[in-house]
Specification:
The protein is built from 26 helices and 19 strands. It is an alpha+beta fold. It has four domains: 86 residues, Alpha-Beta Complex (DNA Primase, Chain A), CATH 3.90.580.10; 129 residues, DNA primase DNAg catalytic core, N-terminal domain (Alpha-Beta Complex), CATH 3.90.980.10; 149 residues, Dna Topoisomerase Vi A Subunit, Chain: A, domain 2 (3-Layer(aba) Sandwich); 163 residues, Orthogonal Bundle (DNAb Helicase, Chain A), CATH 1.10.860. The structure holds zinc ion (ZN).
């Protein structure tokens, strides 16, 4: 069993970061790249392998260790990031519980069953029963190389072939049932896949989680049959080819999503390797989340015939307006906390010429396919074009419907300039005035402006975390004698945590606190130890130049006050959001309650502003309060000092 330190020691930070940031270059003893967390041209993102830390000296002004990096880039909770790092480092963090052990055993058995089935299918393709399937595969352009790489196989036209094969190799009927390979029938278990071309599907980690199976005769239904939902396979959250496309997607900062297995294979054969398939008609939010582990730039490639289909448009609309976006509670100009989707994903659409699919086009004219990819259009443009084409402009009913369909997409756009552009377009399309559209959007934006229950919970949880800026401030005071003057000017109120406050009070009283450690209460003494022990990693108070000490103390203190002011606002905002959520669930207007909360929030806000003005003081230039976001992400209780200041750490 290992500790967090073992994980960090085992995991090479440069190698790990480079997996996500291929541009990382060695400069002297450290490594440099444009920051993956904010957009910039000049690299201000530094990795220091000797210290095992990374830091963004640009607008993130934050840093941490390898686990913090993975947490941030994978959008994970700390626990999950630690787990992921431990797994990569091959460190067992703790004894798994009996249930976890059992779950892991089941997974491993099912994976082995899938692998054994794939070998069986592969052998069948080149065996006597597979002649017809092999001919089909070759006619589709699957040469020997592609067949080997993608482990293409054939499920023979046989009711018990695979079942008996696997039972003879020690697998149980329960294994086959759970892996989705066998189906219980009146006369015993039989093969799910019969007379089909088999595409084994792997997850991002390369584990064989299931199969896609294509019919070989025209009377077979359905044309494509997937492994059902199993402990390993979740179709809506899987992407065919992700195990082979991920690296190239990170390198090229782009991922192309197509529909079918053959589309993926053909593109990879043609050297376009950042391609995966959604395995369905439209992409889901879960798939979008998976994609964002590799890149924010997603290109959806649609067959000409399907591009305008209602199901496809709805799917794209949902993904474009909800996923790939973080809900951020912002303090807006009205003094109210509002929720905005900050769009991070850049989703674009490529529509192929009629009658073409990626498979056919990449084989006949790969350059054309690449050119089409270059010219991919923003999702909103695609939706406008598709819906406009379908609309009867002379019919008010039809125009109204078109406007209603497009409104959520437009109201999901955060950038005011871009949004204004589409508002104008929507007004033209509906043949109405812009203010009519705006009225519609503000009505329609209500749902988008309300966070989900999960987001509310996360926000509420974020408040409960002690801001670790307190720790850093204490470290400065305790480890740097030259911080004393600046420290004396603070007041204990800066610290939210009562133990920290008492430690500060003790520090005020004596010059050398360590010498008086025995006089301290037990919990305060313990905190003193923690403060001293944790001054390592990206944040090293000993390394700060003397002239920066005072500004640093003041800056942290300012941020703590600011955070505190904000944290008082959040519970009210959470209550407000909860009220709206509940009202929406019950389908009533939460008028009275909501109004009360809004009044309370406005009052808190006024107080907050006073606090902020006081906190800002005159010394350090500060961003205006309205630009400070109370985010549900790493902002509150996150990575310590987060100012737009360059750093000398
Ligand atoms: Zn940055």
């Amino acid at each position: 069993m290992g500790t967090i330190e073992d994980v960090k020691a085992q995991l090479d930070i440069v190698e790990t970061v480079r997996g996500y940031v291929p541009a990382l270059k060695k400069v002297g003893r450290s490594w440099k790249a444009p920051c993956p967390f904010h957009s910039e041209r000049t690299p201000s993102f530094i990795v220091e392998p000797e210290r095992g830390t990374w830091h963004c000296f640009g607008s993130c002004s934050t840093g941490g260790d390898v686990i913090g990096f993975v947490q941030r880039i994978e959008h994970l909770e700390f626990r999950d990031a630690l787990q992921m790092c431990a797994q990569r480092a091959g460190v067992e963090l703790r004894q798994p519980s009996a249930r976890e052990r059992q779950e892991r055993e089941v997974h491993e058995r099912l994976l082995r069953a899938n692998e054994a089935a794939a070998v069986y299918f592969q052998a069948a393709l080149t065996g006597p029963a597979g002649a017809k399937a092999l001919a089909y595969a070759e006619q589709r352009g699957l040469d020997q190389g592609a067949r080997d790489i993608w482990q293409i196989g054939y499920a023979p036209d046989d009711w018990r072939g695979l079942v008996e094969h696997l039972l003879a190799r020690g697998f149980t009927e329960a294994d086959l049932r759970e892996a989705g390979l066998g189906i219980d029938g009146d006369r015993g278990m039989y093969d799910r896949f019969r007379d089909r071309l088999m595409y084994p599907t792997r997850d991002a980690r390369g584990r064989m989680i299931g199969f896609g199976a294509r019919a070989l005769s025209p009377d077979q239904e359905p044309k494509y049959l997937n492994t059902p939902q199993t402990p390993l396979f979740d179709k809506s959250g899987s992407l065919y080819g992700i195990d082979r496309a991920g690296e190239e997607a990170r390198r090229s900062d782009r991922m192309v999503v197509v529909e079918g297995y053959m589309d993926v294979i053909a593109c990879h054969q043609a050297g376009i390797r950042n391609v995966v398939a959604s395995m369905g008609t439209s992409i889901t939010e879960k798939q979008m989340t998976l994609l964002q582990r590799y890149t924010q730039k997603v290109r959806l490639m649609l067959d000409g015939d399907a591009a305008g289909s209602a199901a496809m448009l709805r799917g794209i609309g949902v993904v474009a307006s909800t996923s790939g976006q973080e809900t951020v509670a912002t303090h807006d100009w009205r003094g109210l906390i509002s929720y905005q989707y900050q769009s991070k994903a850049d989703i674009r659409v490529v529509v192929l010429p009629p009658g073409e699919d990626p498979d056919s086009l990449v084989r006949s004219d790969p350059e054309r396919l690449k050119a089409l990819l270059e010219g991919a259009k923003p999702v909103a443009d695609h939706l406008f074009a598709a819906i406009e084409a379908d609309m009867d402009a002379s019919n008010p009913q039809s125009r109204s419907q078109a406007v209603e369909t497009l409104a959520p997409t437009v109201s999901g756009i955060v950038d005011p300039v871009v949004r204004a552009h589409y508002v104008q377009r929507l007004a033209r399309l509906g043949q109405v005035e812009e203010r009519t559209v705006l009225a519609l959007l503000s009505r329609g934006s209500r749902p988008a402006a309300v966070p989900s229950q999960a987001e509310v919970t996360r926000m509420a949880k974020a408040v409960a975390v002690v801001p670790d800026g307190e720790m850093q401030l204490l470290q400065l005071l305790l480890l740097r004698d030259d911080a004393r003057d600046a420290g004396l000017e603070l007041d204990a109120d800066v610290f939210e945590d009562s133990t920290n406050r008492r430690l500060y009070d003790a520090w005020l009283e004596v010059d050398d606190l360590e010498a008086h450690a025995l006089d301290l209460d037990e919990d305060v003494a313990e905190r003193l130890g923690t403060v001293q022990a944790s001054a390592v990693g990206a944040w090293d108070p000993a390394a700060i130049e003397m002239k920066h000490i005072r500004p640093r103390v003041e800056e942290i203190a300012k941020r703590l006050r600011l955070r505190r002011a904000q944290s008082r606002l959040i519970p009210v905002a959470v209550a407000q959001a909860t009220a709206v959520l509940e009202a929406r669930r019950a389908d009533t207007t939460p008028a009275a309650e909501l109004e009360e909360l809004q009044t309370e929030l406005a009052a808190m806000d006024a107080q907050g502003r006073v606090l902020v003005r006081r906190a800002a003081g005159a010394r350090v230039e500060t961003t205006s309060y309205s630009e400070e976001t109370v985010s549900s992400g790493p902002g509150v209780g996150g990575n310590g000092v987060e100012g737009a200041h360059d750093s000398d750490i």
